[in-house]
Amino acid sequence: MGKMERFPFIVLVAGLLFFLFADFVSWALPMFVLKDIPMKKVSDLAAEAKAKNTSAWADFERLAASYPEQFKKYYGEVNEESFAKALKIGHRWYVAEGCWNCHSQMVRPVSNETLRFGIPGVSNTVSYPSEFQNELQAPVLWGTKRIGPDLIREAAVHNIDWQVAHLYNPESTSPGTNMPGYPWFFEKDEKGNIVPNERGIGLLTYIMWLGSWEVKPTKEWALK
Amino acid sequence: MATNVATAGGEVQVTNLVNYTLVKLHVAMGLIFFIIVGLMGFLYSLQLDGIYPFPGIEFLSAGRVRMIHTAGAAYGFLVNMFTGLLYWAVPRFTGYKVFNEKYLGGFMFIGLQAAVLITVVAILFLGMADNVEWGETPWWLDPIIVAWLLLHAIQFGAPIIKASQKAPLYVTGWYISAMLVWTPLVVFMGNFIPRFWSAGSGAGAVQSTFIHDLVGLYVTPVAWGLMYYFVPVIMKKPMWSHGLSLLGFWGLAFFYPLNGVHHYLWSPIPMFAQYSAVFATVAIEFAVTSVLINFMMTLRGSAEVLKYNVPLRYMYTGAIFYWITCFQCAFHVTLTFQKVIHFTDWVTGHAHLIMFGTFGMWVLGMAEYVWPRLFGKETMYSKGMSEGAYWLLTIGVIAMFVDLTAAGLVQGFDWIGLNPWIDSVNFSKPFWYFRSVTGIMMLTGLLMYAMNFYKTATAGKGLEAQLRESA
Predict the structure, then answer these.
(1) Which of A53, A71, B30, B268 would disulfide-bridge A129, Cβ 3.0–4.6 Å?
(2) Cα–Cα distance between B116 and B96 in angstroms, integer?
(3) CB-based contact, B454 to chain A, within 8 Å
(4) How far is A59 from chain B (nearest CA, A)?
């Protein structure tokens, strides 16, 4: 027993052996199981959104049309590069503002979550591994706490105009909410209107991208 | 500590085993950060109440403040406190000085404070954070934290290795030895693998392991190690059972690192990993109970010490909270409980009971034991403030725990019931208001405690000075 109480044994067995065994079971093995799911970069996500003409792409076009001055100034034209740039900036500020402290990004297969966070017939699926296998989920943004609702199916829940108003003043769209407003995502244009700035357009693009891969095209933007 | 050492010539030499300055600096900074972190948590709770005092100010946005609350608790409060207490305990139970006090010790102290301040500036003012819970430090700062932890391993590893060559280590030595290896590995794993070598579910598995390991493989072993040192010292008697000490340590070392994935049950992580985490979590409660039995049996026959010895009372209160938290965990870790309580305030209550109720109480107790001795005083400045702080903190944390647990059940069932989302916010409001009140209690207790510390350090003369005067 004396050996168990000395530095080398403790460090080798408890410090390294047990630790490595646990890491193998807890995450190396799961990663091995998931290894065949292709890993997507932000540019891949942008290309996919354009090719499939997802709701996120339509929302990005709508942002460009609604705020032409700001959009041209910060993002230029609507194309894959500017979409990827907006996603990256939006993700960065989603993390930096701690949005993930109060909003999760995971729909569980229990507790009626598919009914609450999806729209039946449009996006009522449980979260699955491949939708997280991309650069914007490294580290993953599942979160551990909900003060506000889950956002991973947000594209199917609210439209872009609702999001703009809600981000500037949450009380305007959700009476009684305790979410803070984010006025620093907005600026004044030449006419004095309050419009989203570079970060704002990025964050709105990112939020409307969440779950857009699950939304089936509706005639609203197919007609455009 | 001044130890008298008889040399071959029969003369007496005085050597200083413990560097008092380092203990004082780290403990004081730890206490300051404890108050700041508590204030940040209180501010964030006001946002939930809908009465945030700084709306529309970018640098004081509640989301950013919340990240200071969690990251600050880890690096500003706990690492400072633990490092200070290790500077006291390690040389004493090994009989050797730490690796280097003046240069390495000083450098480590400044480095740690700099790392915390950089984190605060980056998160509040630069909008740079990392979405790893408890690893909110920006990713470019993490290599520096890992390097700091390696220096920390050298600093405290040196005396332990020396002592281990002569005789088997005391229990504290086992916990600290393992922790010195685990912590840099955990911080490296949790901050780099999810960012550079994986994404999605794989990253989720690593991040959940990290959240749990930073508690289980840094905070818990340091804290239990120090408990095994301070409790017998204060009660002046050995631990009840050496066998249970062994069982507790090896049980913790084996099962704790396997627990992490239980933070993401019902997630897209492969089910075998989720099941193994649930199994390991239930298993570890047995190890925890064996440790608790050992401490309770050590107390047997000396329980009246708790009446007048506030440090020991902090330690046993924390130990009971520890067992409650772990007992609760054995139930709510199951997939059935998770359906209701995941994502709710139940989890927040659980986290506060373990972090504040257990580890916070323990370090406050240990610091209160060490502090008068560091300044050559017989006791703390005020017994009244000492008692007042203890009761405010204890009642505050119990009230917060009960309140948030109840709030969690309300939220969980409300969500299952598919009521409009805003209902769950409105139903939670009374609980959140009460939580802010408990926060005020805890902050008041902390301020009282800090005032007592300040007075102990500055008021009156030390024992040595008194003796010199009377001579």
Answers:
(1) B268
(2) 30
(3) no
(4) 25
Place of tokens 């938290």: B325
How big is the CA angle at B189 (ends B183 and B190), to the nearest 5 degrees?
90
Number of H helices, E strands in chain A: 12, 2
The strand pairing partners of A187, in sequence order, are A195
What does CATH list as the number for A42-222?
1.10.760.10
pLDDT tens-digit map of B12-45: 444 689 999 999 999 999 999 999 999 999 999 9
**Domain ranges for chain B:** 19-169
Residues in contact with B425: Cβ distance below 8 Å, sequence separation at least 6, in sequence order? A147, A176, A177, A178
C-alpha torsion A101→A105→A106→A112, nearest 10: 90
A160: tokens are: 């872009």
- What is the number of alpha carbons within 13 Å of residue B99 lying toward its C-beta? 16
User: Could you tell me the two tokens for B147?
Assistant: 């390097």
| Residue labelled with tokens 């390495």 | B104
Contact A127, A133 (CB under 8 A): no
Query: What pLDDT, on a 0 to 100 scale, did the predictor assign at position A122?
Result: 63
Tokens coding B284 = 């570890």
Put simply, whether B339 touches A (Cβ < 8 Å) is yes
Residue B7 pLDDT: 47
Helices (H), B193-270: 200-213, 220-235, 242-255
Helix (H) or strand (E) holding B13: strand B12-16
- Find chain B residues with C-beta within 8 A of A181's C-beta: 55-56
Please give the pLDDT value at position B461.
77
Cα–Cα distance measured from residue B362 to residue A102, given in angstroms and rounded to the nearest whole number: 30
Q: H or E segment at B382?
A: none
Q: Which amino acid is at B137?
A: T
B467 to chain A, closest Cα gap in Å: 42
In chain B, % helix, strand, coil (3-state, to 5) comes to 80, 0, 20
For CATH 1.10.760.10, the residue range(s) in chain A are 42-222
Q: What's chain A's length in residues? A: 224
Q: Residue A194 is inside which H or E element, if any?
A: strand A194-196
The contacts of residue A20 (CB under 8 Å, 6+ apart) are none
What is d(CA B162, CA B139) in angstroms, rounded to the nearest whole number? 35
What does the pLDDT read at residue A219? 54
What distance in Å separates the CA atoms of residue B31 and residue B333, rounded to the nearest whole number? 32
What is the tens place of the pLDDT at every residue in A55-95? Answer: 999 999 999 999 999 999 999 999 999 999 999 999 999 99
Beta carbons within 8 Å of B137's beta carbon, 6+ residues apart: B71, B75, B115, B119, B122, B130, B145, B191
Q: Band of the pLDDT at A157, cuts 50, 70, 90?
A: confident
Locate B168 and state its tokens: 């088997």
Could you identify the residue written with the tokens 């969500």? B415
Which residue reads 């894959």 in tokens? A80
Instruction: Give the pLDDT mean for B449-455.
Output: 96
Of A27, A178, A183, the CB nearest to B50: A178
Angstrom CA distances, B316 to A196, B242, B395, B397, B460, stand at 54, 19, 15, 15, 30
Q: Which pLDDT belongs to residue A107? A: 94
Enumerate the residues of chain B whose CB falls inside 8 A of the CB of residue A25.
258, 273, 276
